[in-house]
Request: fold
Amino acid sequence: MPAIRQLSNSEEHWIRNAFPEITPHDVAKYLSVHVHTAIRILVRLGLITAPSQKYQQGRSTLAGNTQRSCIVCKTPKTMNKNQFICSRCRCKQRERGLL
Reply:
């Protein structure tokens, strides 16, 4: 399963401020992602209701977060139910080409 695209505060702020006037295609161009990824981001932010089930968040992702230690850096963090590597370590791994 691909990694979830994490938005920076400025990206989220831009999307929320410009949302009624922009389309998922505009969001995709701004974030340099595929249109389907942009639709998933808009659904995750609660700005649109997608017409298809494939964009909906699964029941397991809505189940909540849990407190656990990252298996790479060993620091305790709040992570999604099925996440075992913190976002910081995951980004480092992605930059090194390990993912």
Remarks:
- The chain has a mean pLDDT of 83.
- Residues 9-55 form one domain.
- The two ends are 11 Å apart (CA to CA).
